[in-house]
Design a protein that fits this description.
The structure is a single chain. The chain has about 260 residues and is an all-alpha fold. The chain folds into two domains: about 70 residues, no CATH class; about 110 residues, Fic-like fold (Orthogonal Bundle). It is built from eleven helices and two strands, in the order ααααααααββααα. A two-stranded antiparallel ribbon has the order 1-2. α4 packs across α6 and α6 packs parallel to α11. The radius of gyration is 21 Å and the shape is flat.
């Protein structure tokens, strides 16, 4: 029997026998496709040491924020968005340097198609992050865990993307991704490295469960801070979009901060 199936089944309290190989595989597949697979989603009861670190970090952040002049804070935020964008792109294997991002923000776009597309990708990240920051300052930020908000992030990020940036390698052939739309067809259910995300037909259920577990209305300040990392991981596990999941996860994490 496949050791992975044994591990999955045993983790849910089942120990399938080799003679029931077919039914065990179906059972394991069913368990993987359940939205509760992302549990545990949060530290509902945080250890005292973790709670202390969260409290200290939150207090230090509040002190720093109150000490900054509004103009200084705005300038720092603008610089931080460029650095965050650089790091985000680097995680995707795209080495667009901060100076290249700054040039792109002033309209100085490279003539080389590859470098130009990377600049457009970076400016999109800065633009969407700036809008998140604006809404947070105006207290108009939507629920960060809502499917509507997450889809809007993806749609806004790819709003001005050229067609090559929307071309995604599918299971059997490439296809054009529709910004803001979940995975919806079997050919979009490609493995991500060694991980196989939930099938496209289950994305809606997973995202509804994601919203229930991470919505701000059910969490206090400390719980929100602790949930940032786990929500980032679980959203990438669900992998709701054909592409751009890492970027959207990082942008959404900024909305939880």
């Amino acid at each position: 029997m496949n050791p992975l199936l044994v591990h999955i089944s045993s983790s849910f309290g089942h120990s399938p026998q080799p003679s029931a190989n077919g039914s065990a595989k179906r059972s394991a597949k069913c368990l993987i496709e359940q939205a509760s697979r992302i549990e545990p989603a949060r530290l509902d009861e945080a250890p005292e040491a973790i709670a202390d670190v969260v409290a200290i970090s939150s207090a230090a952040g509040a002190v720093l924020e109150s000490a900054l002049h509004p103009t200084t804070a705005a300038n720092l935020a603008a610089r931080a968005r460029i650095v965050i964008t650089y790091e985000s792109n680097l995680m995707e294997g795209h080495d667009t340097r901060p100076r290249d991002i700054e040039r792109a923000l002033t309209g100085n776009i490279d003539q080389d198609e590859g470098r130009r597309n990377l600049q457009l990708e970076a400016t999109a990240h800065v633009r969407v992050q700036a809008e998140i920051d604006r809404m947070a300052a105006d207290v108009t930020l939507p629920e960060p865990a809502s499917p509507k908000f997450i889809r809007a992030l993806h749609r806004d990020f790819y709003r001005d993307a050229p067609e090559p940036m929307l071309r995604v390698r599918g299971v059997n052939m490439p296809f054009n991704m529709e910004p803001g739309e979940w995975r919806s067809r079997p050919e979009q259910d490609a493995a991500v490295g060694r991980q196989m995300p939930p099938s496209s037909e289950r994305v809606d259920d997973f995202m509804r469960h994601f919203e229930r577990r991470y919505r701000f209305a059910d969490m206090g300040k400390a719980a929100r801070i602790m949930a940032i990392a786990s929500a980032h991981h679980r959203l990438n596990y669900i992998h709701p979009f054909p592409d751009g999941n890492g970027r959207v996860s990082r942008l959404r994490s900024g909305a939880m901060d």
